[in-house]
Write a structure and sequence with these properties.
This protein has 4 helices and 5 strands, in the order E-E-E-H-H-H-E-E-H. By secondary structure, it is of the alpha+beta class. The strands form 2 sheets. The chain has a 3-stranded antiparallel beta sheet, covered by helices on one side. A hairpin with a 3-residue loop joins strand 4 and strand 5.
């Protein structure tokens, strides 16, 4: 695989993210929130990691079970839920199509195609069953997703 497949450029290490952090200067006071199906972070001008996962990387039954287990815990439960999702994805469940070099290169090419056009890509990693990338701030990416379909 091409070496750029795993990182566009090195970023300085930052302290561990406190998911209860409420940044100053937000366009809204939302911070971490969800609309019932996926967590979001409204951070204004703060750089954000985005994760896209493959359809079979995390069964819906597992998500529902974790939601039930963490629902009564309020904000702490939401943090626990997010950590469970991240840990599960990192274990590489599912068919892991992205570990195929040709598929990973297609994803990389798509990200690079839109870099400096639709978004400024700071860094990315292509894992076997999910993709994580860092943008200076969230931008609508629907056309970026459609290019790979």
């Amino acid at each position: 695989m091409r070496s750029s497949l795993y990182s566009m450029r090195s970023l300085p290490r930052s302290p561990v993210l406190d998911r209860r952090f409420q940044p100053k200067g937000l366009r809204s006071n939302l911070g971490w929130y969800d609309r019932g199906y996926i967590p979001h972070f409204d951070g204004g001008q703060i750089s954000q990691f985005l994760t896209f996962r493959l359809f079979d990387s995390l069964p819906q039954s597992v998500i529902e079970k974790w939601r039930e287990e963490t629902a009564r815990l309020g904000e702490e439960g939401k943090t626990i839920f997010r950590k469970k999702v991240e840990n599960y994805l990192d274990k590489g469940h599912g068919a892991c199509f992205l570990k195929q070099e040709r598929v990973a290169e297609l994803i990389e090419d798509s990200l690079l195609f839109h870099h400096n056009k639709k978004f400024n890509l700071m860094a990315w990693v292509i894992m076997p069953n999910h993709i994580i990338f860092l943008l200076p701030q969230w931008r609508m990416l629907s056309s970026g997703k459609s290019r790979t379909q």
